[in-house]
Amino acid sequence: MGKLRLRIQNLGYSYTGRRPTRALDGVALDVFDNEFLALVGPVGCGKTTFIRIVAGLLAPTQGTVVWDGVPIRTPSPERGYVFQEDAVFPWMTVRDNLEFGLLAKRLDTAARATVTRALVRLIGLEGYETAYPRELSAGMSKMVEVARVLATDPSILLLDEPFASLDAQTRARLQGELATLWEQRRKTVLLVTHDVEEAIHLADRIIVFSSRPGRVKAEVAVDLPRPRTLELRLSPAFSAIKRAVWAELGLTGGPAP
Amino acid sequence: MILGFASVVGIVAVYTLLAHACGRPDLLPPLTTLVATLRSLVSGQVVAPPGGHVHPSNQIAYLLAGDVTLQGALLASTTRVLFGVGVGGALGVLAGLAMGWNRTVDEYLHPIYVLVRSIPPLALVTYVMLWFGHGEAHRLIPVAYAVFTTVVIPTYHGVRDVSDVYVRAARSLGASRRSLFTRVVLPAASPFVLSGLRYALIIAWMTTVGVEMLMGEDGIGHLIVAGGLWSSRVEIGVDPAVVIVGVLGLATVGFAMDVAARTLADSLTFWTRERRS
Amino acid sequence: MSGRSRTVSRGAVALIVLALAYGIVAEAGGPILPRRIWVGAHYIEDVELIPRYASLSEEAVFLVRSGILQGGITVSGLRVLGGFLLGALVGVTLGGTMAWATRFGYLLEPWVVLFRFTPALALLPLYVLWFGLGEASKILLIATGVAIVTLHGAFEGVRGIPRVYLDSAASLGAPRHAVLRGIVLPAALPHVLSSFRIAGALAWVTIVVAELIKPTMPSLGYLLALSGAYPRIPTLVVALATIGVLVLISDALAVAAYQRATGWMRRRNG
């Protein structure tokens, strides 16, 4: 196991307002270097709240989140965030989208072009550099978003149900592409999802959240060989892990006999 | 909410300071004069402001001599606005429905509508007067006309852009063309129509006040200029206290009408409310 | 494609029929309609309530030869433009700031809500009092009307920016000015530009009344009022038509700007 990167202790969050809600309660979690960690849980268990806190978009109401020894207070390009919604800027071309974070880093034109060219090739969108997002399919658009986040070379990727709004086939394909991408460029990844297969396919370790308020209910290790292909999903080992996670989520009676 | 309250108090305080610093009650009347003016215009009897500044234009006395009160003027204007929204709104909705629903009608009428819309309603006042004489008609027609041109477009888009999904679903359920229109298209377009009518209310107020300023014998526009733009009163100087009180009265009634319209619209289109999370 | 050409030809047919119908009504109406009308205090002789094309063209030629029409277009057009630019600048700045800096927004909100329903025209007598009988009153009156509308456009535009774009820009490390330039401006622009369209129409309505403040000649508003007061109906109709054309032109400009700025939006089918 690598060095400790992210340490979360006793994390709690309450929404105030007309109907106050306790979204998270006493969450403790350690994330290690170059680890792919997935977080699954029922709808409304505070998964998104959790990852937004790690991104620095929300301030916790209780507990601490420490990244490389420094408490997280604000968003930073160090922690690349891929959103659930379509966050590609529709008024910018693919290239301008990819360069947005680089401009903030004050890279010169040549350096930006190098990074952008490599990323366009990585996601297979050569020839689409000057296209607007409306000309792309939903899956392509999502990959532009992933690439835009990778452009600034973050130390951790935060994926908030990134493929939730895509159709099943595109989702499976992009999950495969993401797995390949990750195997090429190892990075620490925190993935939030309600898709158990997605979690198993991609992650080294799965954290199961309880329903509201969200707490860490269980941890399931995924000891499947890499590189992982879509074929793997049909294997008995995959099914066994799926059964275990489902059991923790309360979807089946218990582990197989 | 607290900030809003603070802002009201703040503006009143700033205004008082400004009026004091300026030292010209004939340009920026102090708060006490405004209150006295309000009381005069509501009660119909001259209430002398403390300190005794009476504006040289004597606008209050002129208005009161003609039995003009603030509430009376607002009522007269409100009636015109409601008439305009009623008649112009009905015609505008009909035209919008016809153009939105039937493509042929749209193709023939749209250019004519664009032509008609390009004429500012207030520019029509004098021409209409030549036809109908100096009566109520030439005040009401421009208001109705203004509302008409405003309401057509939102209705038109509401009907034309009803999601194809609803139309196809209704067709496949065997809806006749008639029930498709009354049961699907009309309800789906109604939020657009209602928001168009709400906007038309603003236009109706603007036209009404403009018409009353130009040619009115009563109403809030008449109160503000007291005798019309054509008289020399504007040049010798109006009483700013009357204008400020009139404008605040106008703002209050306009706001109240919008709240009423919004409440009505919300209860009519309850199904557009967001799903409970 | 054929649908489009049919739309155009049907539109042309409608306009031609309208023009012909007007001509016929004007010719036929001449003998029937009263030529002596009562306006409030006295009779006016020799009035053509629906002027024939002949009278209209004669009048138009006169107005152009004497330079009254061109002068009026220039003077009124410049007033509208000046008032529009000033009002849009103030309105967009205030509205954008109110939406962006929430606390500042709360502070101004009650006043904005209240005055949204107040026609700027009602302020005319006050403006005359405060700013005199010259150009300033006219331009400021137009600017006030425009500012109220564009303020709302900018406010709604900035408030309506999907949260995810702002969050996304922040987590990509964009500093405040980059967010403003890269996200807020382009995302709010469609709303702002569609409010410009409304404000442009409003400016032309306002000028008709504003130009009655100490009216001087060349000015379309005064031409309109004067020809109504005498009355000279052919002049009135020519003045109305001129204002109509100017409104159409400014509206077309606003629509073109809107379409140029929103090319990136998803287009509706059909």
Structure, described:
The complex is a heterotrimer of chains A (257), B (277) and C (270). Chain A is α/β, with parallel strands linked by helices and 257 residues long. Chain A has helices spanning 47-55, 94-104, 109-122, 138-151, 168-184, 196-202, 236-249, and strands at 4-15, 21-32, 36-40, 62-67, 70-71, 79-82, 156-160, 188-193, 205-209, 216-221. Chain A is globular and about 50 Å long. Chain B has helices at residues 2-22, 31-43, 59-65, 70-101, 103-117, 125-132, 137-160, 164-172, 177-215, 220-225, 233-236, 240-268. In chain B, helix 6 (125-132) packs across helix 7 (137-160). Chain B has 12 helices and no strands. Chain C is built from 10 helices and 2 strands; from the N terminus they run αββααααααααα. The chains are: A alpha/beta (257), B mainly alpha (277), C mainly alpha (270).
How far the N terminus sits from the C terminus of chain C, by CA atoms, comes to: 11 Å
Average pLDDT of chain C works out at 83
Oligomer: heterotrimer
What form of chain A results from the Cα inertia axes? Answer: globular
Secondary-structure-derived class of chain A: alpha/beta
β-strand percent of chain C reads under 5%
Number of strands of chain C: 2
Q: Give the overall average pLDDT of chain A.
A: 85
Range of helix content of chain A: 25-40%
Q: What strand line-up does the widest sheet of chain C have?
A: 1-2
- Extract low-pLDDT stretches of chain C: none
**How would you write the strand order of the largest sheet of chain A?**
6-7-8-3-9-10
Strand content of chain A: 15-25%
Number of helices of chain A: 7
Secondary-structure element pattern of chain C, one letter each: HEEHHHHHHHHH
Whole-angstrom Rg of chain C: 23 Å
Helix content of chain C: over 70%
Q: Label the structural class of chain C.
A: mainly alpha
In N-to-C order, the SSE pattern of chain A is: EEEHEEEHHHEHEHEEH
The rounded distance between the terminal residues' Cα atoms of chain A is 31 Å
Topology:
The complex is a heterotrimer of chains A (257), B (277) and C (270).
Chain A: E1 4-15, E2 21-32, E3 36-40, H1 47-55, E4 62-67, E5 70-71, E6 79-82, H2 94-104, H3 109-122, H4 138-151, E7 156-160, H5 168-184, E8 188-193, H6 196-202, E9 205-209, E10 216-221, H7 236-249
Parallel strand pairs in A: 3-8, 3-9, 6-7, 7-8
Antiparallel strand pairs in A: 1-2, 1-4, 4-5, 9-10
Chain B: H1 2-22, H2 31-43, H3 59-65, H4 70-101, H5 103-117, H6 125-132, H7 137-160, H8 164-172, H9 177-215, H10 220-225, H11 233-236, H12 240-268
Helix pairs in contact in B: 2-12, 4-5, 4-7, 4-9, 6-7, 7-9, 8-9, 9-12
Chain C: H1 2-32, E1 37-39, E2 42-44, H2 53-65, H3 68-100, H4 102-115, H5 124-131, H6 135-159, H7 163-171, H8 176-210, H9 220-229, H10 233-261
Antiparallel strand pairs in C: 1-2
